[in-house]
Design a protein that fits this description.
Ferritin, 2 strands, two-stranded antiparallel sheet, 7 helices
């Protein structure tokens, strides 16, 4: 009886081992969700954040180029007219670069601004004079501040050489545009988002004067 029981247990153990091997062969290995979104390219891995950067820069141009054109006829301030022309011209340059990099990396780009940007365009299209000047300066300055954090974050960690070059160039455009908008004197800095609260600094060890203890 005992010999029969041992034989049955041995056969059961063999069956379980075989089943485990079969499951291991059939089931795919666990995949890191972040790595699953990476695409290999000749210039290095392309991540979801890299693709999102190209999309966001493209959409920024799709609304800032038209509102730069609006400034020609709707602005009262000569400086706002000049800033609108500069932003429109430079976004045309940046948009060309964005499309070139996206084509090289196989990233599909949108052909229209996002819903918030479309709403801002409609708001500015309905304004003129001082109201246009004020909202033009503040809406574009706030938008540039948001895209700046995206560009900087991608530049700090991207694994892709093409995105490194693109994001470095993008940072230069965004910083120039923030300076242009602030040069109008109309940006209300109190309405901009505050920088994130820094982490607490580690305690500083007090220096000991050895002469006092000798």
């Amino acid at each position: 009886m005992h010999r029969l029981l041992r034989g049955e247990l041995f056969m059961l153990g063999g069956f379980l081992a075989a089943a485990a091997v079969t499951i291991a062969l059939v089931m795919p290995p666990a995949i890191d969700p972040a790595a699953a979104q990476w695409t290999q390219t000749p210039s290095g891995p392309l991540t979801a954040a890299d693709r999102d950067l190209l999309i966001k820069v493209r959409q920024a141009g799709l609304w800032e180029m038209p509102v730069g054109e609006y400034a020609k006829t709707r602005a009262e301030s000569q400086r706002v007219k000049e800033v609108g022309a500069l932003i429109m011209k430079e976004h045309m340059e940046l948009d060309l670069l964005t499309r070139q990099v996206a084509k090289k990396l196989g990233v599909a780009l949108p052909d229209e601004p996002n819903p918030d940007q479309q709403r801002w365009m409609a708001q500015l299209a309905a304004q003129s004079g001082p109201a246009f000047d004020r909202d033009f300066a503040n809406l574009l300055r706030a938008a540039h501040g948001k895209v700046f954090t995206t560009v900087a974050a991608v530049r700090s960690g991207t694994r892709n050489a093409e995105i490194r070059k693109f994001s470095a160039e993008g940072i230069n455009y965004v910083m120039r545009h923030m300076a242009y908008l602030e040069s109008t004197g109309l940006v209300d800095h109190t309405q901009l988002p505050e920088p994130p609260t820094p982490s607490p600094a580690p305690p500083v060890a007090m220096a000991v004067d050895k002469r006092r203890h000798s």
